[in-house]
Every structure is written in C-alpha cells, then in structure tokens.
Design brief:
There is one protein chain. The protein is of the alpha/beta class. The protein has a single domain, classed as Spore Coat Polysaccharide Biosynthesis Protein SpsA, Chain A, CATH 3.90.550. The protein has seven helices and ten strands. Strands 3-2-1-4-7-6-8 form a seven-stranded mixed β-sheet, sandwiched between helices. A three-stranded mixed β-sheet has the order 5-10-9. The protein is globular and about 45 Å long. The relative contact order is 0.16.
Length: 233
C-alpha cells in the first residue's frame, strides 16, 4: 500500500499536519507517500515525512498520464483539482489517496484492508447523493477508470464550470459504472469540518474542504492541533 496526495506549495502546512496526525492518531506509518507536484518538492518536505515515518516519492504531474487534449483551460485550484484524476494513471499497485486538508483523529488502519475502489458516497453536508468526495479514496490504478474519466471530461466541455472538477467527473463515471465502487465507506472516514459535535466526535478523518484553508488563519480544530505539535504553526 502507498499513500498519494497532490500538493501545491501553499498547501505544505496541511501535509505536515496530516502526516503527523496519520502516524500518531491513525497508527499508519512506514509507507511510501507519493507526492504529485508541478515542481520538484524541496528537501524539507521529504525530511518532515521521514520524521513522521513515511518515505516520500515525488512525482511531477507531467510524468503521470495526460489529461484529454481538448480539456478547456483552467487556472489555479481548478486546474489542480482536475489533475487529481492523474492518480488513476500511477503504476500498478494499491493506493490510498488523501487530500492534504484532512486531519486524522483516530485509528485508521482499517482503510488499508478495504477493497478498491472505496470512498465515502451519499449525502453529507450538501454533497450529492449520487456523488463522491475525493478527499479520501482507496483505489488501484487501471486503464478502465482512466478511459472512463477521459470520456467524461471530453463530454463535459459545455458544462465545465458546474461539475465540481474531479468530483463531478467521477460522479458521472460512477453513475455509468457503479460496479467500480467495491465499498461505500461511512461518513466518519471523510467528515466535513462543520460545527456539529456529534459528527466530529465519531470522525476518523476531518476534511477542511473549501477554498479557505484552516492554515491560512483563524481558529479551528486544525489550528489548535497544529499549534500543539508544530513550532510557530
């Protein structure tokens, strides 16, 4: 099993906290962590993951598959969201994808033995009942899903700005190919960081989804946790 995340430089604080929480709260360590970036990752990223018990393998996005040639131009965050679909072009193996704006609260070792594809489905805090949240996916790369994603990306040109990037593409894929979902995970595996004590209490992973990230300022569970483990967090 390998971990994989896509990362832009300004999201580096999220990776630091995620790695620490995964090792110390989730009891997951000793794995290779594939970090997909647009540029080579600095040594400090590798050093931090090593301190948390992970081995970093930095791959450039340009080295991992290609998006369809007629993909409309996108910028910044949206471009990077679509690039997340490149994970399905990684070398054969078993992977756990994690967004870096997630925090692990409890033992998460069970996810390592779930089949591919495993993800949180259904409605949660506004997520589509027919959708998927791509913050956490247990998957095995394969040409079948690569081809299915490419087909939907080409078909979705007219509504490009309204399909929620990678999540919208995968929603369309899984509607046509429900057999690809082997295990529907409970919401505790990907709980939105909303002010609901009951949900947060049962959460294994808290997901700080949205454009405003907790490390950018303001008080939050992430900020409190980061301040307790990182100098000058």
């Amino acid at each position: 099993m390998k971990l994989v995340s896509t990362l832009m430089p300004h999201n580096w604080p999220g990776l630091r906290v995620l790695a620490h929480s995964l090792a110390h709260n989730g009891n997951i360590t000793g794995l290779d962590w594939v970090v997909l970036t647009e540029d080579r990752a600095p040594d400090e990223w590798r050093d931090w993951l090593d301190c948390c018990g992970f081995r970093m393998d930095n791959l450039l996005l340009s080295e991992v598959g290609e998006l369809p040639k007629n993909t409309p131009p996108t910028k910044g965050c949206w471009r990077f969201c679509y690039n997340k679909l490149r994970i399905f072009s990684l070398p054969a193996g078993e992977y756990l994808y994690l967004d870096v704006d997630m925090l692990c609260k409890k033992d998460a070792t069970e996810i390592l033995t779930t089949p591919s594809i495993s993800a949180v489905m259904g409605r949660q805090g506004g997520w589509s009942s027919a959708g998927i949240n791509t913050g956490l996916i247990r998957f095995d790369p394969g040409q079948e899903i690569v081809d299915a994603c490419a087909e939907e990306m080409k078909a979705a040109v007219a509504e490009w700005q309204s399909i929620m990037a990678d999540q919208g593409i995968l929603r369309r894929v899984f509607r046509k190919h429900p057999e690809m979902i082997a295990c529907k995970l409970g919401r505790e595996w990907n709980t939105k960081a909303i002010p609901s004590p009951d949900l947060l209490e049962e959460a294994i992973f808290i997901h700080f989804a949205g454009e405003v990230k907790p490390w950018a300022g303001g008080k939050s569970i992430w900020a409190d946790y980061a301040a307790s483990i990182l100098p000058n967090a």
